UniProtKB/TrEMBL annotation:
It holds the Pfam family GDP_Man_Dehyd. Residues 8-298 form the NAD(P)-binding domain. Transmembrane segments: none annotated. Its cofactor is NADP(+). Its EC number is 4.2.1.47. Gene3D superfamilies: NAD(P)-binding Rossmann-like Domain (3.40.50.720), UDP-galactose 4-epimerase, domain 1 (3.90.25.10). It comes from Nocardioides albidus. This is GDP-mannose 4,6-dehydratase.
Length: 327
């Protein structure tokens, strides 16, 4: 029996890392996932990662990453680790540039020791256009440029340019999870109101499970190429609020929502639209989950979290398949 192919996933305890690691395990890979040393996420997310080998590794530790690569000799590397919050990047610009830009560049250098390894960088739709001014976006752009340079030199390196995507594993600091958590809490009488910044944004919101499936297809392709991962459907944040509250059984959310200008980002694009056609044409990818289904699943899981007191449980990921779409 041949050895299982090794897939190395950085940032494995994040939303995308969990979804991707589980997909890779289901496909028969040996999955090794890195996480920030000392992070409580490693223990918190263990219910979803029982078959994944976890390694504590600072993303900026180039020699540590190089040593890990030499030890495990991965066939595939997915770099999902990053500072993922645009808002946080304004507060910690140097860290954002190091994590999002310098770290993937160093990873590609380290992977010269395993030239057959395929590399995927999680890029972002926010790295261009109106949103590109943030330290988050500038770092992501540098990481993407490193991928292009590596591919030009003959490496199998690709960037998945991801639009926003959600799941029950989204951290509460992100606005959609903040909304679903509040809708669940208000429906249970555990919270009175929800406070938001501007509702004047429209985004191409997808499902994390769909987006990581696109990543997998990209690294399994015969030809390395960057692709935008999007649904092609634009939705306003106000619609997201209505979907979440409807899923929680609340028909009129606007009597329960307050607004605070202090919560708005320094620079934010009003619209970020995506085009799934090239990815569909090249690799046959299609999104399987609507935003309404995804938001309904998030509300259902947040209600269960609040009632049970259990923040993470493996069956929470089944909700996206079993929860009905919100009206």
């Amino acid at each position: 029996m041949s050895a299982r192919p090794v897939a190395l996933v950085t940032g494995v305890t994040g939303q995308d890392g969990v979804h991707l690691a589980r997909l890779l395990v289901a496909e028969g890979c040996r999955v090794i996932g890195t996480h920030r040393p000392g992070s409580p996420a490693a223990a918190a997310m263990r219910p979803y990662l029982r078959e994944v080998e976890l390694v504590g590794l600072d993303l900026c530790d180039e020699e540590g990453f190089a040593s890990l690569v030499r030890d495990v000799r991965p066939a595939e590397v997915y770099n999902l680790a990053a500072m993922s919050s645009v808002g946080q990047s304004w507060q910690e610009p140097e860290a954002a540039m190091a994590l999002n830009g310098a770290a993937p560049t160093a990873m590609l250098r380290a992977l010269e020791a395993v030239p057959q390894a395929r590399f995927l960088q999680a890029a972002s739709a926010e790295q261009s256009g109106e949103a590109a001014a943030s330290p988050y976006a500038r770092g992501k752009r540098l990481g993407h440029e490193a991928v292009v340079a590596a591919r030009d030199s003959g490496r199998f390196a690709v960037a998945a340019v991801l639009h926003i995507h959600e799941s029950p594993l989204r951290r509460p600091t992100f606005v959609v999870r903040k909304i679903t958590r509040a809708a669940a809490a208000i429906s249970l009488g555990r919270q009175q109101r929800l406070t938001l910044g501007s509702l004047g944004i429209r985004r191409d919101w997808g499902a994390a499970a769909d987006h990581v499936r696109a990543m997998r297809l990209m690294l399994a392709s015969d030809t390395p190429a960057d692709h935008e991962v999007a649904t092609g459907v634009l939705t306003s944040l106000s619609t997201v609020v209505e979907l979440a509250f409807a899923a929680a059984g609340i028909s009129d959310p606007w009597t329960l929502v307050d607004f605070d200008e202090a919560l708005e980002r320094p620079v934010d694009a009003a619209v970020l639209a995506g085009d799934p056609a090239p990815l569909r044409s090249a690799l046959g990818w299609e999104p399987r989950h609507s935003l309404a289904e995804t938001v309904a699943a998030m509300v259902a899981v947040d209600r269960e979290r609040l009632v049970s007191g259990v923040e993470e449980a493996e069956h929470y990921l089944d909700r996206l398949r079993t929860s009905p779409a919100a009206p």
